[in-house]
Predict the structure.
Amino acid sequence: MAEIRTAMMIQQWRRMTFLHWRYPVGAVRPLLPDGLVPDTDDDEVWVGMLPFLMDEVRPPWLPGLPYLSTFPETNLRTYVRGPDGQAGIYFFSLDAARLPAVAVARGTLNLPYRWSRMSLRTDGAMTEYRGSRFAEPRGAGYRLRARAGEPFPIEELGQIDHYLTTQYRLYTVVAGRLISVDVWHPSWVLHRAEVLHLEQDLTAAAGLPAPPGAPLVHSSPGVRTRIGLPRLVR
């Protein structure tokens, strides 16, 4: 995908860990808005939990502000096709540690952001992510410790590795209309990774059953991104 020239937001995504599970299509389809269908693989669809550090968040015409521009975020997403057959992602939830960022994302694009108490701590190759939502009775959240390994040799990366980590479009619903937003980023440098500890109830809070087994895991130091302007999907 060509780099987006007219961006509404610039971001750096750092210290990313990708956890993915395969779900039955029937568990995911009822949670999608009209116009989107699961992007299936052998009658299953992938659901991903991605914790990372959001950094240097700013509009392209303004400098970043230290407190507002850097914070942990975790998203829970699945892979879909729009009415025109275009592939993209749909977010069940996005947890963020900055209330202004949550308010702006919900107010402009109606993205399902949740204000959460979050932390991200690193120790060499190990990263620990924690989150707990404010203003929810059970405080849905997670605790993950993951260790990054060596980079994958290019020849060992398969189609599914690229598919789960390289998506250039998100879908959301604003005022009852399906909206798409293009997201540009260079190719990820993907590393092997292992989960040392995982507790989470984000999937349950989204209405999904418990993840079926151990996740497929990747990690990356991060990428620079440009977020495009929203467009109505006809």
